[in-house]
Amino acid sequence: MSHKADLKIVCLDGYTENPGDLSWDGFKALGDFTIYDRTSGSDIIPRIGSAEAILTNKTPISRTTLEACPNLRYIGVLATGYNVVDTDAAKEQGVTVTNIPTYGTSAVGQFAIALLLEICHRIGHHSEAVRKGRWENCDDFCFWDYPLIELAGKTMGIIGFGRIGQVTGTIAKALGMKVIAYDEAKNTSGQAIGDYVSLDTIFAQSDVISLHCPLLPSTQGLINKNTIPKMKDGVIILNNSRGPLIVEQDLADALNSGKVYAAGVDVVSSEPIKADNPLLKAKNCIITPHISWASKESRKRLMDIAVGNLSAFLQGKPVNTVG
């Protein structure tokens, strides 16, 4: 690896991490730093060029790219998920890959509850209705267009009870909800928040189901035409974990039939969302553009960890390595 002053560092897609409200100075202090807002296709290899260290969020780093960039020794993924990197090829070529394992726990848990509260109160809709003059011209002192739902006394079932699931459960409990959870690896810290139960019990007893599990072969398509009938009529489903946890056509059908009262999703199976995604036309479905992680505080934490990852690597003591 080059001397610090000569170290060439390239960030391939920095805009979503830092659209201008954070500082890249931590990386600039480690070497010759070049940043691109976005990189795709044929630009990937030439932009990496002779760089020894790169940062990527969603720009894919394939075996072909690794073979074309022999100077590369370090890939810092600016996210928790690192499937954009061919880690097998990186390992074969002696390239260290790191990720950011925990940075948005509080933000993502808070956002799950925000989706739920929007479903329960439709605050945005009613605020806009007031601005359009509907309250001014109302015969009564109030009006509402959706059922207003009180959460106290209802049951939240959380699938995936790690850090984020437990933050979500803690907030739900503070709202007066009963919390039950399913996780293959039962964490003792979760027992103070909710009761561990079977997956079928989650489906049968939950008024709200919130997904916080990783995307694995065992969880892909977990919400589908076979599991939805096991749920209560009028259940609410939340997903700000991974889009492919849900079979979207099956959820859309259940929303349109009324079996599922509402859904709030911050992730979909293919992102950015495609125009033919069935959830776009489904009843009572709130969709946000994968922003649970994106509070300024969360992104600042991500930036600090990313700088620390590269710094540790340069000192010969890599941390948060993957692959």
TrEMBL record:
Coiled coil: none
MF terms (GO), sorted A to Z: (S)-2-hydroxyglutarate dehydrogenase activity; hydroxypyruvate reductase (NADH) activity; NAD binding; phosphoglycerate dehydrogenase activity
Its EC number(s): 1.1.1.29
Hydrolase in keyword set: no
Pfam families: 2-Hacid_dh, 2-Hacid_dh_C
Gene3D superfamilies: NAD(P)-binding Rossmann-like Domain
D-isomer specific 2-hydroxyacid dehydrogenase NAD-binding domain boundaries: 113-292
D-isomer specific 2-hydroxyacid dehydrogenase catalytic domain span: 28-321
This protein's UniProt keywords: NAD, Oxidoreductase
One GO biological process term: L-serine biosynthetic process
Enzyme class: oxidoreductase
InterPro entries referenced in this protein's UniProt entry, alphabetically: D-iso_2-hydroxyacid_DH_PdxB (IPR050418), D-isomer_2_OHA_DH_cat_dom (IPR006139), D-isomer_DH_CS (IPR029753), D-isomer_DH_CS1 (IPR029752), D-isomer_DH_NAD-bd (IPR006140), NAD(P)-bd_dom_sf (IPR036291)
Entry's family note: Belongs to the D-isomer specific 2-hydroxyacid dehydrogenase family.
Name listed for the protein in its UniProt record: Glycerate dehydrogenase
